[in-house]
């Protein structure tokens, strides 16, 4: 049930520009959009890293020790550094766009955007602290 | 060189036009008339084709309503979307005698205010009907989804406007026209979706086809391809707006023009009161010689803004350094009971007077202050922002000044034309089957239109009057009978093609716009806010000269087959050049002052318009008799049974 | 402030050239001039053949949208002074066929707009005699933002998805559908659902967000689309339930 | 291709996006940067495996692995479409993206189920 791109009465002389394959490099805002979308790659990579952690823990203390050594190599540190930047970018864009996607109403009045954004950041802070405390508990 | 100069002699034998106003008491006329009308049965409506030219408030409303009733409707717009029509630019609001404020409003009061506001040059019967319908219009618009401002309980909010002492203007922030037009546009789109209306965009009407004395079709030009085409039908509705652009600089959209009504006039439709033009008091002043359009600031601003100029001549101080005692709030001084809400013609004229005294402000001294400092102090900036925020933003966008801090500068500019094609009570022109709606007709505003009445009239015509009266006309005529192969259609097409070819063939040196600008200057100087016999005679000498030069020296570019904006424009300027002359003839013949028509020879000792009801209590309707011939004057006498003729006073 | 400023204007004369080219004009610089004034100056004094559409010059008719230095704007609101030192590049809106110079053809949008039924739909119309529909300021507030759309097409021109997938209904049409969905007087949300959440509807959108950024009327089409995604997803979940919405 | 399940995929995408936005930065910072760089001491094996045995931890880990994988699959799919203009390869892309997410989620489920 596609509407199709009808251009009737399409005048043969009217000029239609083709979109370049490099359209996303033409303006910074498009590039930023594509970078935002590519954060998902790092999200997925880190999910795989988490899998690896679990696997190593399951194999036993030696495997866990090897994992720690492996994580300390420059390659992994750099990879994690890059991933961290992208994941942060993901978090920030995700929180900032949240009020657009979700309108919160309280007694009929629309909550201002900053309230929605603010509560996202607050939740982020609380959850991060909780994870850190639980994970690093001795 | 051609001339058609002259004041038509007072012709006692001038034919008297009859508007066929139904008999009976005024509050029963429309109801009674509707009952007496013939009806087309719903099953037969499909067989009738109605051509609606224009898709603004009146046109879209008429096309949508007629389509909904089951007629086969074709609607034409020269824009690329019907919603671009200039009705969108109306900001302030729409009047309705709902009396929500319990401030003594009623249908009769709206009727009374409108007749008085029009300086007793409108038809009582029409105006009463308009006031009556104002109630239905609001409900209809609300049902269509117009986002009117609301009060806490969910009822509509309203405010006051010029020329009225009650609060009856309903609004959607500063964009009422836009929202009303969207309402009508949606109704139209809906009918397009249902198949009862066919919409022709980028299609300009260039001629009217009259067969056996009836309007049966139109000739159009496709603006994108140049194709000349014809459409025939059983009735034609013109809803093509006003002709303020004859002044070149006006608040009208750039494309607004008189071509449709002027060509219909040349085919036999009488033109009524062409000299009744409205100069709106609150516009952003002209800022340079290259300006191509003026911008209106809504009259609603006068609710809270105070108009003033310095008392001293040539006072060059910035406004905040002029103490209260050295300011002249001249509207409040001269018209204490209406103050800043005096009607438009009066407010405009007063602004011109103070600027003529060299007390004007801003570049060139052509401006007065509209000051919100008091209102902001009284109500707070946030209230003012809520009420007028988008207008203040627009002002800042155009002038770069923040009107919350410094007073706005405003000056009058051409805005609306009360004149237009003559129509009877049924909105039918002197050509049977030709109906004219909205600003294109002359019907309801007399010599001056009150604020927030244009939207009301356009919608009354489109939603309620035409659907009834067009049906009544069609019920008396069998459907169909002509096609585009009819000799009269072909002849009209050939004439249009010849005109286009002539324009393309001139190949002169001057741009179309330069002619338009020169014509506009002549009209503004001599047939603008104030007129006198000498000036009008001068203009009547100048305009034919300009027309002659146009014919020899205009440069129209390129060819017909494609989008050619200079060709479009040239055709419109040709018509303005002819219409301008008729405006001056009318202004010259009407040796009185009334409403927007201010003849300097006819004023009271304190500078107010001085009517001559003895000689001029009539509608002047001009019949076209050829480019070189003197137009023939017909008169429709005006009788005032309910609102007694009196010198208008807003003091 | 400079005395003059250069404008590089896209010209396309279909009878002469296969693709648009840029032509440079030197116009006087004035503080209070917008790009549209400069174009009018060119048309009036330098080159009468330049074609572009405009109408109201007050930001409501939606005719004069063009790309200025790569960004879609209303040229009646784009001050020259914001784009100094120049040359200021003026081009037609992206993704629509160019008719001539700066004039584009919008038929595609006109056709799509109709599909989302942007008018009040009611199961039963109330007769006029019963008076007006009531609506509280809060109910008005729910859709008011979306009612400001002037169909200027800047959002389409800013949307790469529309460029890549011309069948996409697009930002303005969806925002206008939402304008009616959210109106307390409207009962047509179900009727619009099929087209809005269909193949060419909201799911094409990847939330680039540029439509909202270029909107001169703060309509926020991107928000409208994302909000509708949630509506559509909730509707989908409900259809799973045995007693759910059909 | 009709897409009746798009709303469902979008819901999973949104959940994945939210979960990863809230929780990934802290996990990534601690395990990927702070610990390897020696800014803090790594948790002891016994503590971690003890934590891991708790059913809530297992559920938590499944959520923060599976949903973000679908989040990636959904987002990356459109990035491939638009960035490379290869929408004609829809079937292949869909199988690759969602397939990979499915495999990853299954692996997570398997590992988390089999913790000693």
What share of residues are in beta strands of chain C?
A: 5-15%
Provide the structure class of chain A: mainly alpha
Q: Number of folding domains of chain A?
A: 1
Based on helices, strands and strand pairing, what is the structural class of chain C? alpha+beta
Description:
The complex is a heterotetramer of chains A (138), B (651), C (246) and D (116). Chain A has one domain: Fumarate reductase/succinate dehydrogenase, transmembrane subunit (3 helical TM bundles of succinate and fumarate reductases, Up-down Bundle), CATH 1.20.1300.10. Chain A has helices at residues 28-59, 61-72, 74-101, 113-136; strands at 105-106, 109-110. By secondary structure, chain A is mainly α. Chain B is α+β, with helices and mostly antiparallel strands. Chain B is built from 17 helices and 22 strands. Chain B is globular, with a radius of gyration of 24 Å. Chain C has 246 residues and is an alpha+beta fold. Chain C has nine helices and seven strands, in the order E-E-H-E-E-E-E-E-H-H-H-H-H-H-H-H. Chain C has helices at 35-46, 107-115, 137-144, 154-158, 160-164, 171-181, 189-196, 210-214, 221-240; strands at 4-11, 21-28, 65-68, 71-74, 88-91, 98-100, 103-104. In chain C, the strands form two sheets. Chain C has a five-stranded mixed sheet with strand order 2-1-5-3-4. In chain C, helix 6 crosses helix 9. The relative contact order of chain C is 0.12. Chain D has a single domain (6-113), classed as Up-down Bundle (3 helical TM bundles of succinate and fumarate reductases), CATH 1.20.1300.10. In chain D, 79% of the residues lie in helices and 0% in strands. The chains are: A mainly alpha (138), B alpha+beta (651), C alpha+beta (246), D mainly alpha (116). Chains in contact: A-C, A-D, B-C, C-D.
What labels would you give this structure?
heterotetramer, B: 651 residues, FAD/NAD(P)-binding domain, Flavocytochrome C3, Chain A, domain 1, Methane Monooxygenase Hydroxylase, Chain G, domain 1, 3 domains, 22 strands, globular, disordered N terminus, D: 116 residues, mainly alpha, 4 helices
Could you outline the blueprint of secondary structure elements for this entry?
The complex is a heterotetramer of chains A (138), B (651), C (246) and D (116).
Chain A: H1 28-59, H2 61-72, H3 74-101, E1 105-106, E2 109-110, H4 113-136
Antiparallel strand pairs in A: 1-2
Helix pairs in contact in A: 1-2, 1-3, 3-4
Chain B: H1 29-36, H2 42-45, E1 49-53, H3 57-69, E2 72-76, E3 94-95, H4 107-117, H5 124-143, E4 158-160, E5 167-170, H6 176-194, E6 197-200, E7 203-211, E8 214-222, E9 228-232, E10 235-238, H7 259-266, E11 271-272, E12 277-283, E13 306-310, E14 327-328, H8 330-334, H9 344-356, E15 368-371, H10 373-379, H11 381-399, E16 408-417, E17 420-421, E18 434-436, H12 454-474, H13 487-506, E19 510-511, H14 512-527, H15 533-553, E20 554-555, H16 565-589, H17 613-616, E21 618-623, E22 632-637
Parallel strand pairs in B: 1-2, 1-10, 2-6, 10-18, 19-20
Antiparallel strand pairs in B: 3-5, 4-5, 7-8, 8-9, 11-17, 11-21, 12-16, 13-14, 13-15, 15-16, 21-22
Helix pairs in contact in B: 3-6, 3-12, 4-5, 5-12, 10-11, 14-15, 14-16, 15-16
Chain C: E1 4-11, E2 21-28, H1 35-46, E3 65-68, E4 71-74, E5 88-91, E6 98-100, E7 103-104, H2 107-115, H3 137-144, H4 154-158, H5 160-164, H6 171-181, H7 189-196, H8 210-214, H9 221-240
Parallel strand pairs in C: 1-5
Antiparallel strand pairs in C: 1-2, 3-4, 3-5, 6-7
Helix pairs in contact in C: 6-9
């Amino acid at each position: 049930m596609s509407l199709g791109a009808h251009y009737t009465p399409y005048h043969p002389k009217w000029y239609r520009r083709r979109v370049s394959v490099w359209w996303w490099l033409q303006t910074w805002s498009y590039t930023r959009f594509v970078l935002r979308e590519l954060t998902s790659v790092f999200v997925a990579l880190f999910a795989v890293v988490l899998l690896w952690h679990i696997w190593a823990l399951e194999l036993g203390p030696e495997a866990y020790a090897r994992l720690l050594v492996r994580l300390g190599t420059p390659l992994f540190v750099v990879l994690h550094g890059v991933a961290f930047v992208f994941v942060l970018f993901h978090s920030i864009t995700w929180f900032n766009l949240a009020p657009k996607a979700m309108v919160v109403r309280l007694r009929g009045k629309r909550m201002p955007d900053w309230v929605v954004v603010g509560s996202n950041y607050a939740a982020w802070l609380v959850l991060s602290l909780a994870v850190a405390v639980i994970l690093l508990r001795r | 060189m051609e001339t058609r100069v002259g004041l038509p002699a007072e012709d006692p034998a001038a034919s008297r036009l009859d508007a066929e106003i139904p008999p009976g008491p005024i509050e029963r006329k429309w109801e009674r008339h509707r009952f007496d009308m013939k009806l087309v049965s719903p099953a037969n409506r499909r067989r009738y084709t109605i051509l609606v030219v224009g898709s603004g408030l009146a046109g879209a409303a008429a096309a949508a309503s007629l389509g909904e009733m089951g007629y086969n409707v074709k609607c034409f717009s020269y824009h690329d979307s019907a919603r671009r029509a200039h009705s969108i630019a109306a900001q302030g609001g729409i009047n309705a005698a709902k009396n929500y404020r319990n401030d003594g409003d009623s249908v009769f009061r709206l009727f009374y205010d409108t007749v008085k506001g029009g300086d007793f040059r409108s038809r009582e019967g029409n105006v009463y009907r308009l006031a009556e319908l104002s109630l239905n219009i609001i409900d209809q618009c609300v049902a269509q989804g117009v986002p009117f401002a609301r009060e806490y309980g969910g009822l509509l909010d309203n405010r006051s406007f010029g020329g009225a002492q009650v609060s009856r203007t309903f609004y959607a922030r500063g964009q009422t026209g836009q929202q009303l037009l969207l309402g009508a546009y949606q109704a139209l789109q809906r009918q397009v979706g249902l198949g009862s209306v066919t919409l022709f965009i980028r299609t300009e009407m260039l001629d009217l086809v009259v067969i056996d004395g009836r309007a049966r079709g139109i000739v159009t030009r496709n603006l994108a391809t140049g194709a000349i085409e014809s459409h025939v039908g059983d009735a034609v509705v013109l809803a093509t707006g006003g002709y303020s652009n004859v002044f070149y600089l006006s608040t009208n959209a750039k494309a607004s023009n008189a071509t449709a009504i002027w060509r219909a006039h040349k085919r036999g439709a009488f033109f009524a009161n062409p000299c009744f033009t409205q100069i709106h008091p609150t516009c952003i002043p002209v800022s340079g010689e290259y300006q191509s359009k003026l911008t209106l600031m809504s009259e609603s601003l006068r609710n809270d803004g105070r108009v003033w100029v310095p008392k001293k001549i040539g006072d060059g101080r910035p406004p905040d350094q002029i103490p209260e005692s050295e300011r002249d709030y001249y509207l409040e001084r001269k018209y204490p009971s209406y103050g800043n809400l005096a009607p438009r013609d009066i407010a405009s004229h007063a602004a011109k007077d103070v600027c003529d005294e060299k007390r004007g402000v801003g570049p060139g001294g052509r401006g007065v202050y509209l000051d919100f400092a008091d209102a902001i102090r009284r109500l707070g900036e946030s209230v003012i922002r809520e009420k007028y925020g988008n207008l203040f933003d627009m002002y800042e966008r155009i002038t770069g000044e923040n009107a919350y801090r410094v007073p706005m500068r405003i000056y009058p500019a051409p805005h609306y034309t009360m004149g237009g094609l003559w129509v009877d009570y049924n909105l039918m022109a002197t050509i049977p089957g030709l109906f004219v709606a909205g600003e294109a007709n002359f019907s309801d505003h007399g010599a001056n239109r009150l604020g927030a009445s244009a939207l009301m009239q356009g919608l009354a015509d489109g939603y309620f009057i035409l659907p009834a009266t067009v049906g009544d006309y069609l019920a008396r005529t069998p459907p169909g009978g002509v096609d585009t192969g009819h000799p009269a259609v072909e002849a009209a097409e050939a004439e249009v093609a010849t005109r286009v070819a002539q324009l393309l063939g001139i190949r002169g040196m001057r741009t179309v716009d330069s002619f338009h600008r020169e014509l506009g200057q002549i009209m503004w100087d001599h047939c603008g806010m104030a007129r006198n016999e000498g000036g009008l005679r001068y203009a009547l000498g100048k305009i034919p000269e300009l027309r002659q030069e146009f014919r020899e020296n205009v440069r129209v570019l390129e060819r017909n087959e494609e989008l050619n904006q200079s060709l479009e424009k040239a055709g419109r300027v040709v018509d303005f050049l002819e219409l301008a002359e008729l405006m001056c003839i009318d202004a010259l013949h009407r040796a009185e002052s009334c409403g927007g028509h201010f003849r300097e020879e006819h004023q009271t000792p304190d500078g107010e318009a001085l009517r001559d009801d003895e000689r001029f209590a009539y509608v002047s309707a001009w019949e076209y008799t050829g480019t070189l011939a003197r137009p023939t004057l017909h008169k429709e006498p005006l009788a005032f049974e309910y609102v007694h003729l009196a010198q208008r006073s807003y003091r | 402030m400079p005395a003059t400023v250069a404008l590089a204007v896209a010209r396309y004369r279909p009878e002469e050239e296969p693709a648009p080219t840029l032509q440079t004009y030197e116009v006087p610089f004035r503080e209070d001039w917008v790009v549209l004034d400069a174009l009018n100056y060119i048309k009036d004094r330098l080159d009468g053949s330049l074609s572009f559409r405009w109408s109201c010059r007050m930001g409501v008719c939606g005719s004069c949208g063009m790309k200025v230095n790569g960004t879609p704007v209303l040229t009646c609101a784009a001050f020259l002074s914001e784009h100094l030192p120049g040359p200021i590049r003026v081009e037609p809106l992206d993704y629509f066929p160019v008719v001539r110079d700066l004039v584009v053809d919008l038929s595609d949008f006109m056709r799509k707009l109709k599909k989302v039924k942007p008018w009040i739909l009611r199961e039963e119309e109330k007769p006029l005699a019963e008076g007006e529909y009531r609506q509280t300021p809060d109910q008005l507030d729910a859709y008011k933002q979306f009612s400001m759309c002037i169909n200027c097409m800047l959002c389409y021109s800013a949307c790469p998805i529309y460029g890549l997938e011309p069948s996409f209904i697009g930002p303005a049409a969806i925002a206008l559908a939402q304008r009616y969905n959210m109106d307390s007087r409207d009962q047509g949300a179900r009727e619009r659902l099929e087209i809005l959440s269909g193949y060419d509807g909201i799911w094409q959108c990847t939330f680039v967000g540029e439509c909202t950024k270029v909107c001169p009327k703060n309509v926020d089409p991107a928000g409208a689309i994302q909000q509708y995604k949630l509506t559509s997803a909730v509707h989908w979940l409900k259809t799973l339930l045995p007693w759910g919405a059909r | 291709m009709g897409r009746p399940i798009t709303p469902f995929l979008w819901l999973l995408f949104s959940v994945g996006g939210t979960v990863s936005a809230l929780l990934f930065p802290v996990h990534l910072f601690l395990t990927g940067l702070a610990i390897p760089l020696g800014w803090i001491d790594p948790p002891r094996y016994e503590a971690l495996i003890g934590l891991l045995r708790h059913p809530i931890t297992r559920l938590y880990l499944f959520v923060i692995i599976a949903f973000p994988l679908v989040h990636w699959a959904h987002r990356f799919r459109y990035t491939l479409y638009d960035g490379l203009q290869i929408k004609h390869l829809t079937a292949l892309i869909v199988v690759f993206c969602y397939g990979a997410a499915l495999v990853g989620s299954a692996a997570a489920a398997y590992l988390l189920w089999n913790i000693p």
